[in-house]
Design brief:
With 312 residues, the protein is an alpha/beta fold. α1 packs parallel to α2. Keywords: Flavoprotein, Oxidoreductase. This is Thioredoxin reductase.
Amino acid sequence: MAASVEVIVVGGGPAGLSAALNLARARRRVLVVDGNRPRHAATLQAHGFLSRDGVAPAELRRLGREEVSGYDEADVVFAQVSEVAVDADGFRVRATGVRGGADVDAVAETVVIATGVTETMPALPSLRAFYGTQLHSCLECDGFEKAGEPLALIGETADMAERALLLTQWTDDLIVFTNGVAPIGDDEERALARLGVRVERRPIEDVVGEKGVMTGVRLADGTVIPRAGGFVRPVWTPALSFADGLDLDRDSDGYLVTDAHGRTSLPGVYAAGETTAPGPQQLIVAAGSGAVVAAAVNRDLIGIAADEGAVL
């Protein structure tokens, strides 16, 4: 027989744990199911989180789990969700235990999806060796620590010029590596050039370094361009395969479409953090969205109308 709770939160990152914490404080019976495969696993420090600037993301998650589990109404389990389906009692969530965790078979009136995204990096053999130390993906999170250094910006997407403009806040020595793929128009290139940013369109062979420290970018023709570090632009994909059967509205990039309070197109299903547009964001922003969603869930479970505050 499936266990029964009021709310199941799928995903135990800052968004999911923040939602669970606020719901537990509202005396809701909450179960957090987390697959324990965080996108930030390679990141040593997270920045911009008030009172926790410089904390390791893994430590932030650990502290969050402890806080949530400290409430009698809440529990956190390590399990990989395989399916969320409509059930006679609301929604049924099935998951396979990981890290010694038990399998999950539970039903709830409400589900909060906070599973974030997966990221696909440019296909460079040694990139992962420097990711999280000399190479990062979040400009706002790690730009300050790279200030004044000769940096690379590596990516193959259409927003490379925009990201390069943002990086000029922290360095006046920046090269954008398109790997022969990223489209940067003539007007964009001229705008970047006025700020001293160079666009390198030749294909990349690899990122190079010595003793774990990045020293440059090697092009396919053998040229090595010295760089002390920089930023990479992954391709992000919402981690939502378990929810395919729910037929939730998504935007053109696959992110869940919600209202301002995290309500999806299916009543009873909410989304917080990076599963919603615009996708990847700072940890503190994700945590804030979890709190917003928790407030909406609690009001909806009570029966307070979203628009005028009337009792349904």
